[in-house]
Amino acid sequence: MKLALIGVGQAGGKVVDALIDYDRRTKSDYIVDTIAVNTARADLMGLRFVPEAHQVLVGTSRVKGHGVGADNELGAEVTAEDVGDILSKVDDLPVHEIDAFLIVAGLGGGTGSGGAPVIARELKHIYTEPVYGLGILPARNEGGIYTLNAARSLQTFVGEVDNLILFDNEAWRRSGESLESGYSEINTELARRLGILFSAGETDGSNAVAESVVDASEIINTLASGGISTIGYASVELDRPKQGLFSRLAGGPSREADNGESMNRITSLVRRAALGRLTLPCEIAGTERGLVVVAGPPDVLSRRGIERARTWLEEETGTMEIRGGDYPVESNFVAAVTLLSGVYNVPRVKELQAVAIETQRDMLAKRQSSAASLEELVDSGDDGLEPLF
Ligand SMILES: Nc1nc2c(ncn2[C@@H]2O[C@H](COP(=O)(O)OP(=O)(O)OP(=O)(O)O)[C@@H](O)[C@H]2O)c(=O)[nH]1
């Protein structure tokens, strides 16, 4: 499946960088083009793979290239004011080659959290291709304002995109790591999941052994549930010599994969992917739609294994809309990716909303009490001075 990526804010840009890096190293080739949008000049300069010509600095007349300091209302305003500059960059992309847009942003800050929904709304207005979001939730220890931003942005963003894939930093952070090296590792994990999912939909059918390959329409139909999605992943190394890193297969041996070992490997991988650490932890029962992709060398891609895993996921989620297929690649591992779309039972989102309501109430109370204190202070110094105006 071919995508145009738009990274908004610092996290958005860095994650897009990580996705491009994975795409190039593995030759998965699902990214057609990229754009990075920011209010901070320094963040754009830090990008490694999004070329300068594809970068848009917004809000210069208001924030002079210094960012919006976690003020997501300001992030939304300046993005809306300069959205013409972003749209003219999108206009330069080969849109006829893409299947969808993916807008990537951290939802806890100001630029990505405020700007991403604005860009989504404009793209949906102009283009017929689906517009998906990839939103990153802040970790708990980032503080109230990040939580409040994320809760508000989530509500707006999910309403503007065709589907919002979420990644929760809280579920992925590890103690004892510096913030930067921690982010770099989790961005790579995220890139691997999206890389396998979206490049699976890129298999062109020329492959003689690819009998049940996933295609772009299956990904689009799965995401068509709307709402929020989460992605699971599990992999196992094969006991055989390494072959390349992860390159697409062109032709290959005939399929002799339906033996018990290959079948069991696949069913156990899919269970681990769906029940292990998801990009957004949630209860999988009640999921609206799902997709299972199993990637690996064709001689171990058991179709019966994938079918069994698909049926298992139908039972676990309680929906009949589980699609499944394989993705033949040269590798010395087998990997399963599960895309669960339209998930509702998400404790973290409920928690974010509850904390955000409390933070908003606290902020309002503090604002009122500061206003009262200031009035008291000024009044107490009543020395007969006339106010200026
Ligand atoms: N996974 C991941 N999350 C990140 C990364 N960098 C920042 N974040 C998260 O993204 C959130 C938003 O931060 P930024 O992207 O820096 O904020 P911004 O959108 O640039 O907005 P302002 O800095 O306020 O202008 C933070 O709360 C972090 O949770 C990253 O490299 N990877």
UniProtKB/TrEMBL annotation:
Chain's role: Involved in cell shape control.
Domain of life: Archaea
Coiled-coil region list: none
Domain Tubulin/FtsZ GTPase: 2-205
Family statement: Belongs to the CetZ family.
Name by which UniProt lists this protein: Tubulin-like protein CetZ
Biological process (GO), any one: regulation of cell shape
Chain's gene name: cetZ
Major localization class: cytoplasm
Organism: Haloferax marinisediminis
Subcellular compartments: Cytoplasm
InterPro entries named in the record: CetZ (IPR032907), CetZ_C (IPR048737), FtsZ/CetZ (IPR045061), Tubulin/FtsZ-like_C (IPR037103), Tubulin/FtsZ_GTPase_sf (IPR036525), Tubulin_CS (IPR017975), Tubulin_FtsZ_GTPase (IPR003008)
Pfam families: CetZ_C, Tubulin
SMART domains: Tubulin (SM00864)
Keywords noted in UniProt: Cell cycle, Cell division, Cell shape, Cytoplasm, GTP-binding, Nucleotide-binding
Amino acids binding GTP: 10-14, 110-112, 142, 169, 187
Annotated GO MF terms: GTP binding; GTPase activity
Lineage: Archaea, Methanobacteriati, Methanobacteriota, Stenosarchaea group, Halobacteria
HAMAP family: CetZ (MF_01946)
